[in-house]
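Quick one, probably user error.
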């Protein structure tokens, strides 16, 4: 008897119930549960492949997994170079004295603390005598304050304002902001400590290193002579002044495109305004193009001003500008020095 292609229920002889099923059910079972020898082999192969696919990732991961990478401990050594010093202030690694080894306090500019700095209050201070609370009031992080205190405790001393810039953790723009307020007392500002027999020097007033300039008459060379101002910033300041028609306040210099606030704070003490007169624009005769060329007016104000003038006639007084809905009190006060009837 050929058994190669037999219905499923004929292979289950002990189950007599299948033989009692209706003809329709027998046909369904015959159609869907009749397997040839090749079909059975294919089913077994598929089951084997499924098991292999499920187990293969775990086997491969276990076989080829690598041991964890050895952590980088180079930074630990760097920290120890700052902390491990002999009682005579000599570095155990290099043999340099505290004064020679001050470069170790230089700040690493990649520190994430750069993006989360407190704001501080500016006042005149001596970095050699300022308390930790005073440093925090200036806006320095606790870690930076601790570094300064450790430096001083180990015999370090700030002889000139630039010495503070070498402190580890002090950002460059922080030093630029603090430098004008540094007042070093009781020691020479540009030499080694006084000997035991030498009397301490009296308070030395800070020497003005930069000449004050008039912001309405100074050329690019004069601006370049100020701290933190290069040729590009100097050209931008002069160009901004020319487009305005002159400055009427020193604070306007801070509006120059690309001029950092920290740099402006540094040069502000050297800026003067002897002649605050500015070039004015006649709003009753100026065209839209003439008005919009002014940095404080631009097209968003020039067009409404001309449209109002065309509709209501020439302006009889400055206050009529406030009737234009886009001109707020703040805008009016800012523009009024540059316009005339």
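Nope, works fine. Designed sequence:
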């Amino acid at each position: 008897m050929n058994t190669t292609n037999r219905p499923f229920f004929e292979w289950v002889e002990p189950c007599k119930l299948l033989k009692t099923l209706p003809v329709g059910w027998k046909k369904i079972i015959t159609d869907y549960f009749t397997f040839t020898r090749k079909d059975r082999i294919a089913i077994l192969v598929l089951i084997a492949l499924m098991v292999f696919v499920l187990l293969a990732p775990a086997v491969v991961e276990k076989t080829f997994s690598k041991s964890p990478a050895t952590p980088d401990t180079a930074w630990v050594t760097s920290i120890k170079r700052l902390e491990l010093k002999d009682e005579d202030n000599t570095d155990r690694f290099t043999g340099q004295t505290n004064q020679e080894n001050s470069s170790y306090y230089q700040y690493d500019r990649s520190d994430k603390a750069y993006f989360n700095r407190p704001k501080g209050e500016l006042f005149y201070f001596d970095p050699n005598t300022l308390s930790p609370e005073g440093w925090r009031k200036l806006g320095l992080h606790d870690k930076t304050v601790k570094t300064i205190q450790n430096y001083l405790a180990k015999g370090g001393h700030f002889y000139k304002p630039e010495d503070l810039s070498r402190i580890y953790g002090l950002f460059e723009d922080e030093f630029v902001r603090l430098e004008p307020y540094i007042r070093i007392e009781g020691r020479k500002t540009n030499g080694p400590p006084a000997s035991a027999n030498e009397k301490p020097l009296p308070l030395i007033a800070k020497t003005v290193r930069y000449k004050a300039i008039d912001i309405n008459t100074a050329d690019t060379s004069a601006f370049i002579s100020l701290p933190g101002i290069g040729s590009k910033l100097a050209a931008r300041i002069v160009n901004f002044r020319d487009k305005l028609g002159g400055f009427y306040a020193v604070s306007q210099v801070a509006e120059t495109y690309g001029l950092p606030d920290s740099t402006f704070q540094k040069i502000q003490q050297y800026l003067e305004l002897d002649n605050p007169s500015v070039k004015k624009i006649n709003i009753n005769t100026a065209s839209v193009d003439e008005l919009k060329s002014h940095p404080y007016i631009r097209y968003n104000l020039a067009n409404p001003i001309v449209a109002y003038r065309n509709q209501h006639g020439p302006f009889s007084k400055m206050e009529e500008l406030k009737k234009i809905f886009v001109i707020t009190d703040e805008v009016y006060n800012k523009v009024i020095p540059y316009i005339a009837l």
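The chain has four domains: 8-60, 97-201, 213-272, 281-340.
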